[in-house]
Amino acid sequence: MESIFHEKVISNALKVWGLELILFNSPEYQRLRIDPINERSFICNYKEHWFTVRKLGKQWFNLNSLLTGPELISDTYLALFLAQLQQEGYSIFVVKGDLPDCEADQLLQMIRVQQMHRPKLIGEELAQLKEQRVHKTDLERVLEANDGSGMLDEDEEDLQRALALSRQEIDMEDEEADLRRAIQLSMQGSSRNISQDIPQTSGTNLTSEELRKRREAYFEKQQQKQQQQKQQQQQGDLSGQSSHPCERPTTSSGALGNDLGDAMGEEDMLQAAVTMSLETVRNDLKTEGKK
Q1: Is the dihedral of CA 138, 143, 148, 154 positive or negative?
Q2: Separation between Cα atoms, residue 229 and residue 178, nearest integer Å
Q3: Could you tell me what percentage of the chain is helix, strand and coil, using 3-state DSSP and rounding each to the nearest 5?
Q4: 93 near 14, Cβ under 8 Å?
Q5: What is 25-61 written as a DSSP string?
Q6: Greatest distance between any 2 Cα atoms in the chain
């Protein structure tokens, strides 16, 4: 009954301006088959809510007071918009007659409006603002929590970095220890092999220090012998140029043979020891590299 009362009140108020209300979906109006875009204004009612859809200039606007602002409606969408309102239960009235002039209508006769964003319902906008505030507070809480956790993460990263460095140092120490152990074992193995193959006068295994000393003695002995041989050769050349070309320096062949035999025995022994030591070290290093 209130809707009918409001309709009568609005209809009587519009008659003062020479305007008339006609129900949009009434048989009388439908028989006229008028395109909605050729009208000037519509009044829409649902329960106690009333709003106007009006043409200002050459464009249609939804002047619903529940929106944050006027909503631009294209000519092609106007008929669909009115049909949607009818499905939602709205009563639509066509305003017939010459509408009074207004400043907005005069301005929009000269320019056209381009609306980038559709207006929202006032309640919807308030709900979105409230939701944004909630999200903002939640985001602030998360950021505060992240500040604390960020410090923890940095501490954890420093700890992981320190552990990695310590592991690398331990690995390097282990590799050095393994290398020293491999060299020691190779030297021990080579000295044992030499002691088994060559009879020793002392009856004990040779150590690395003894091998080093023997090698130095051998090299010194070899150098002395080379110097002696050079001196003897020079003397032989000088004597050959004199009256005795076929004579040789008198030496003890037996003593020289014994010295050469001893030198060859020591040379073979030292050469075998050095070769075995180098091969053992190379094999150990290759095995470590494969691991």
Answers
A1: positive
A2: 46
A3: 65, 10, 25
A4: no
A5: TSHHHHHH---GGGSSEEEEEETTEEEEEEEETTEEE
A6: 165
- Concatenating the DSSP letter of every residue in 57-123 gives TTEEEE--TTBSS-EEE-HHHHHHHHHHHHHTT-EEEEEESPPPP-HHHHHHTT-----SS---BHH
Residue with tokens 């929009």: 108
**How does pLDDT run along the chain (291 residues), one tens digit per residue?**
344 557 888 899 999 999 999 999 898 898 888 899 999 999 999 988 999 999 999 999 999 999 999 999 999 999 999 999 999 999 999 999 999 989 999 999 999 999 998 898 887 767 777 777 777 776 677 676 666 555 556 677 777 787 777 777 666 666 666 666 666 666 665 455 444 544 444 444 556 677 777 777 777 887 787 788 788 777 776 665 554 444 444 444 444 444 444 445 566 666 766 677 677 767 766 676 665
Q: Which of 210, 205, 203, 223 is nearest to 263 (CA)?
A: 223
**pTM of full prediction above 0.85:** no
- Residues found in the chain: 291
Distance CA(152)–CA(47), nearest Å, equals 61
For residues 228 and 157, give the distance between their C-alpha atoms in angstroms, rounded to a whole number.
Answer: 71
Amino acid at 241: Q
Dist CA 124 CA 121 (whole Å): 5
Buried b (16+ CB within 10 A) or exposed e, 204-215: eebebeebeeeb
